[in-house]
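From the methods appendix. Each design record in this collection lists the discretized structure first, followed by the designed amino acid sequence. Records were kept in a plain field format so they could be parsed without special tools. The example shown here is representative of the layout used throughout.

RECORD:
C-ALPHA CELLS (172 positions):
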C-alpha cells in the first residue's frame, strides 16, 4: 500500500505519516516492510504528483508486514480500527489469491498430462501406420521393378476385331 493511501485510511496527512515512519525507521528496515518508490516510478503513476507536475518526494510503499508494523507507530483509536480492517483485507486477499490458483494449477497440470499421453499415443499409432505403409510401398515398388525388367516370353494374339478380308489380303 502506498503512503498516501494509508494516510487516508488512518485519517492523517501523508507528511505526518512519513514523519512518523522516519522517526521510527528502525521498525521498517528491510524491503519486506517498506521501500521508497523512485522518482521515475512516480512519474509513470498519476497519483502522488504535485501541482507543479512532478513529485517532490518519493512515496513509501508498505508491505503487509510494514502495515502491521505501522500500527505500533500510530496509537489512535482510528489507527487501531483501520489496522484491523487492513489486516483482515490482507488475509482475505491472500486466501483468495492462493486457493483458486492451487486448484487451477492442479487441474491444468492434470490436463497437460492427459494431453501429453494422448499426443504420445497418436504419435505411436502414426509411426506404426507409417512403418506399415512404408513396407507396403516397398513391396509395390519391388513388384513393379520386377515387371518392368521381365520381357514377355510369348507373343500373344492381338485383341480386337479383325476383318476376315484383311487377313486374306483380298479387297472387297
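DESIGN:
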Amino acid at each position: 500500500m502506498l503512503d498516501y493511501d494509508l494516510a487516508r485510511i488512518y485519517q492523517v496527512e501523508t507528511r505526518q505519516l512519513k514523519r512518523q515512519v522516519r522517526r521510527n525507521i528502525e521498525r521498517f528496515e528491510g524491503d519486506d516492510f517498506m521501500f521508497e518508490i523512485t522518482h521515475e516510478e512516480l512519474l509513470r503513476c498519476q497519483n502522488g504528483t504535485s501541482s507543479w507536475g512532478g513529485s517532490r518526494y518519493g512515496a513509501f510503499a508498505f508491505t503487509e508486514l510494514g502495515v502491521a508494523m505501522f500500527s505500533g507507530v500510530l496509537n489512535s483509536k482510528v489507527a487501531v480500527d483501520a489496522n484491523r480492517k487492513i489486516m483482515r483485507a490482507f488475509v482475505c486477499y491472500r486466501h483468495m489469491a492462493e486457493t483458486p490458483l492451487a486448484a487451477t494449477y492442479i487441474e491444468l497440470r492434470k490436463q497437460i498430462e492427459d494431453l501429453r499421453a494422448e499426443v504420445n499415443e497418436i504419435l505411436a499409432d502414426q509411426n506404426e501406420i507409417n512403418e506399415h505403409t512404408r513396407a507396403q510401398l516397398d513391396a509395390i515398388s519391388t513388384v513393379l521393378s520386377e515387371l518392368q525388367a521381365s520381357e514377355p516370353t510369348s507373343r500373344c494374339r492381338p485383341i480386337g476385331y479383325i476383318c476376315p478380308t484383311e487377313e486374306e489380303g483380298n479387297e472387297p
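APPENDIX NOTE: The longest strand covers residues 34-36.
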